[in-house]
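I have been asked to look over a protein record a colleague put together. Alongside the sequence sits a line of tokens, each denoting a local backbone shape. Please read both lines and tell me whether the tokens look consistent with the sequence. I do not need a full report, just your reasoning and any doubts. I have pasted the whole thing underneath without changing anything.
>
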Amino acid sequence: MCCLCLRSVFCLFFVKVGLGSLWWVAFFFFFDFFRGGFTLLCGDCMPKGIVVIKWDNKVGPVIVGKYPENIGFDIDLAVKVYTTQFAGSSSPFSVLEIGDWRIASYYLPREKHIFALVLDDEESGEKYEDKLFAAAEKSSKVLQEKGVVEDLPKLYSDLVSAGYMFKRSELYEKAEVQRLLEKFLDNSLTEIEPTFQWEEGFRYISAEKVTGLDPIDTKVLLETLSRYRILNKRAHDSALTCPNCGSYKIRIRYRCPYCSSFSVQKSNFIECFLCGTVDVEELFSGIYYGEPDKYYCPKCEKELRGLSLDYRRIQSQNRCENCKKIFSEVNVSVQCTKCNYSVRLANAKIVEAPLYTLNPDCVEEIEKQLSHVHARRIISDLFKERGWKVEAPGTITSSDNVNYEFDICLLYTSPSPRDS
């Protein structure tokens, strides 16, 4: 690892993309008051590659894609990763050490896919968790539909770039973070509450509108800000999902604890002391005898004259129509209406949806960081008035397909505004 510390008030950096007369100009603004230095990680400490594994019901774990191809990750290692991940922590994200391999792994139980990032020996994998989750969620849908993971090199480069963004102050450089926090500061947004939808589950629609991100990336952003304690989160809502396909369209079903039948009826019962018959209260009604206000035993046909004398009521019990047994406690299961998968309620997957609010202890810090953003906007406007195309912040993709973010990027074509 090498470190480059820039403490100048203003640093100008020119980058030529090499597309004829097309030039990029990138401006860095580094303020000692806000930053206290900038750390640049070199390529000697970065992920070595990415591997995608899926479960095949006939042969077990299968490698469906890897980048680069010569990474040396074979099927034997894929089996070990899948087995270790499946038998290890209940968390979908794990940092595994298998022999000489160090791997950040994210497991999607619904799709039975694993996205594995092969790490450098000394690299921490935790910083990739949020981005690996987002990448896995998005790419897994394509994998299910087409059987392949599209554009694996780009997915890898995005994850590599994500690894650089681990300083707290750099979160404020993201445009979506700026927009969200500004809404909190001007009180137009006081809390971010989840909304439930049957097809997609929980979404944070108010945050999606402000940030412009899709539902998955919005959840990742909110969780990231929560981990850095910029946002506070608290338990708010939850829902059951199918552990097999992930659908929210499930129903609760009662099973008989004796024969497991679903034919369970909940009712009030009457026990006849004269003959011992126990049955639902409706069958003891005297309507058949023309006396609806009286009870008659459906078996011995005698009138039941006094409560606790020749009969008793059994309140709110269950009876199985299959085995005819009566019981107070039922076995509760959930059944997915999409894939018809059935499982005990205790084994159903619970998806939690917290509520997010601004951490009041961070207000002063946020205001200072956003003042840097406001200064950048003033400078951006100056260049826009002179005809430049401005992106603030902006991203430049290098020749090795790695994205780099800058405070301000200026794009122009010949003749350039600087000639005017």
